[in-house]
Specification:
By secondary structure, the protein is an alpha/beta fold. It has four domains: 111 residues, Rieske Iron-sulfur Protein (3-layer Sandwich), CATH 2.102.10.10; 177 residues, FAD/NAD(P)-binding domain, CATH 3.50.50; 114 residues, FAD/NAD(P)-binding domain, CATH 3.50.50.60; 73 residues, 2-Layer Sandwich (Enolase-like, domain 1). 17% of the residues lie in helices and 31% in strands. The protein has twelve helices and 39 strands. A hairpin with a 4-residue loop joins strand 18 and strand 19. Helix 3 packs parallel to helix 10. It is globular and about 80 Å long. The two termini are 35 Å apart. Keywords: 2Fe-2S, Apoptosis, Electron transport, FAD, Flavoprotein, Iron, Iron-sulfur, Metal-binding, Mitochondrion, Oxidoreductase, Transport.
């Protein structure tokens, strides 16, 4: 909400117009019900009712107002982190208007003032989440919450911010959601929406349905014993406990009537009768189905693979067990994958020794290219990680049933008290083989731009799908990354509600090792050249991945927020040509990002 006089600018937390419209009052003083058709039958549902007050601050003591700058202190396209005494806000000027929102990304707390401002939204410098500067709403992921929005007011050419102290302290806002009506009236073996899988895609789908006002039954089922958690943290911080990395607390699921069935495995799906059959014999009817089962880690096929203390890190219990066994012991990691490298980095200071076995010549060669891979490898070697490249495991030897040695095909024998396997994964879609749902030769579920399968009412999302990527001219790709799973879930939910929404997000990922992060945006599969700017030896660089004349992806270390800037350029439909990468890099270093407002190539 923007108030502008000739003299002053203030900021105050308000309900965004998009959400306020959901609270339009009916003549009886209740929220006007929306209607959703279930099997042709109209059902009414309500958003959780919150009366609209003329003053959005119900407790005057919770409000703070402060002058933060002069109106001429900010030019168009500039952002400033401002202090209100009891907390900070992000002040933004764009197209002559002032806006103010939370200053930290709700995902991992990145300072948004160091992010990228473009066409009404700010993109996080660390992991690429995007927020609308007018509403604070999250528009791209990762993360679940939006930013608080504050009132801006101008008086006597000074900019003021008026805000809730609580909002300044939490720096996050959970969008308003519906609840399920008369949940007790439902048959336990029947649900409107069934979500198989409780990762990012499944949770975002459920939350989006509730945010859009859907108040019928939603059931999520998972083979895991825990409620949805931040799985990428498992390999980056192996001693994390489930409650520390939970995406939402238990109370959240109770409040918004999102049912989660843990330790429940779907064995088959009858698409004709719309029934999911569980391994224990339980059956559940559904109206709409989301399949978000993710991947299953590949196991070793060598002799001795059944010995104790060999792990695929899939759960918090796996990660915690590895840390306990590895401390001051000998660790062998098989596979220089993201998981394998992150685990090696985490254990390097804790274990007596860390050895990493990989079939390729350098880590990450297919993903980041040989030069970046060698720079990363050098960093690991300087941190006591020993590499055994271009070889495989031929045998795992045991003593009294527990791992003792890892034998390589090269003939080398490695002492090992614990082994972590990170040699890739396959889609967890075996239960769908006879279902009639279109599965490709590698086991991936094939979907369209709306995350729909070939079966009406059946959607799929996350690591197990092949979908059309707008960035690569709608080529069907698999992008098994956390950010993309969030967006898949959102798109699927919107299309369950017949919104006709197509996916167009730019892939964005990151990895963290020894306190350093590599950020990556785009889709570099099949790149034919890598152009490096910066210094690989100093681990301060930008790598542009090209295919023919076009930059298709970018990676960086210690050059924030260039990856977010590239993501924003690509998101705008613009093309960075190979010959222009130097200009782009120089413009970034000088702070001139006119690329973001231009058109065409």
């Amino acid at each position: 909400f923007l108030f502008v006089s000739a003299v002053e600018v203030k900021i105050e937390v308000v309900i965004p117009e998009k959400e306020r419209s959901k609270e339009e009052m009916s003549p009886n003083g209740k929220t006007s019900p929306l209607i959703y058709k279930v099997n042709g039958t109209a059902r009414h549902y309500h958003l959780e009712e919150h009366p609209i007050a003329s003053n959005p601050y119900h407790n005057p003591k919770d409000v703070v107002e402060a002058s933060v700058c002069h109106v001429k202190d900010l030019e168009n396209g500039q952002m400033r982190e401002v202090d209100l005494g009891c907390g900070k806000a992000l002040l933004i000027k764009e197209s002559g208007e002032f806006h103010a929102v939370g200053h930290k990304c709700p995902h991992y707390g990145a300072p948004l003032v160091k992010g990228v401002l473009s066409k009404g939204r700010v993109r996080c410098p660390w992991h690429g989440a995007c927020f609308n500067i007018s509403t604070g709403d999250i528009e791209d992921f990762p993360g679940l919450d939006s930013l608080p929005r504050f009132q801006v007011k101008i008086e006597k050419e000074k900019v003021y911010i008026r805000a809730s102290k609580q909002a300044l302290q939490t720096q996050r806002r959970t969008k308003m959601m519906a609840k399920c009506i008369s949940l007790s009236n439902y048959n336990l073996s029947s649900t409107n929406v069934l979500i198989i899988g409780a990762g990012a895609a499944g949770l975002v789908c459920a939350e989006t349905l509730r945010q859009e006002g859907f108040s019928d039954r939603i059931v999520m089922c998972t083979m895991d014993r825990h409620l949805p958690y931040d799985r990428p943290k498992l390999s980056k911080s192996l001693d994390s406990h489930p409650e520390q990395i939970a995406l939402r607390p238990k109370e959240f699921f109770c409040t918004y009537d999102i049912e989660v069935l843990t330790e429940m495995q779907v064995a088959a799906v009858d698409i004709k009768n719309k029934i999911a059959m569980f391994k224990d014999g339980f059956k559940m009817e559904y109206n709409k189905l989301l399949i978000a089962t993710g991947n299953t880690p590949k196991a070793l096929s060598c002799k001795g693979k059944e010995v104790e203390n060999v792990f695929n890190i899939r759960t918090p219990e796996d990660a915690n067990r590895v840390v306990k066994l590895a401390t001051s012991k000998n660790v062998v990691i098989v596979g220089a994958s993201f998981l394998g490298m992150e685990v090696a980095a985490y254990l390097a200071e804790r274990a007596h020794s860390v050895s990493l076995v990989e079939l390729e010549e350098v880590p990450f060669k297919k993903f980041f290219g040989e030069r970046v891979g060698r720079a990363v490898m050098k960093m690991f070697e300087s941190n006591r990680v020993k590499f055994y490249m271009q070889t495989e495991v031929s045998e795992l030897r045991e003593q009294e049933g527990k791992l003792k040695e890892v034998v390589l095909k090269s003939g080398k024998v490695l002492r090992a008290d614990v082994c972590v396997v990170g040699v890739g994964a396959v889609p967890a879609t075996g239960f769908l083989k006879q279902s009639g749902i279109n599965i490709d030769s590698k086991g991936f579920i094939v979907v369209n731009k709306m995350m729909q399968t070939n079966i009406p009412g059946v959607f799929a999302a996350g690591d197990a799908v092949m979908f059309p990527l707008a960035l690569r001219n709608n080529k069907k790709v698999n992008v098994p990354h956390w950010q993309m799973a969030h967006m898949h879930g959102r798109i699927a939910a919107l299309n369950m509600l017949a919104h006709g929404m197509e996916i167009s997000t730019i892939p964005y990922l990151w990895t963290a090792m020894f306190g350093k992060s590599i950020r990556y945006a785009g889709h570099g599969e099949g790149f034919d050249d890598v152009v490096i700017q910066g210094d690989l030896d100093e681990l301060k660089f930008v790598a542009f991945y090209t295919k023919s004349d076009e930059v298709v992806a970018v990676a960086s270390m210690n050059y924030d927020p260039i990856v977010s800037k590239v993501a924003e350029v690509l998101s705008a439909g613009r093309t960075i040509r190979k010959r222009d990468h130097c200009c782009f890099f120089l413009l970034f270093r000088t702070g001139d990002m006119s690329w973001l407002t231009g058109k065409g190539s």
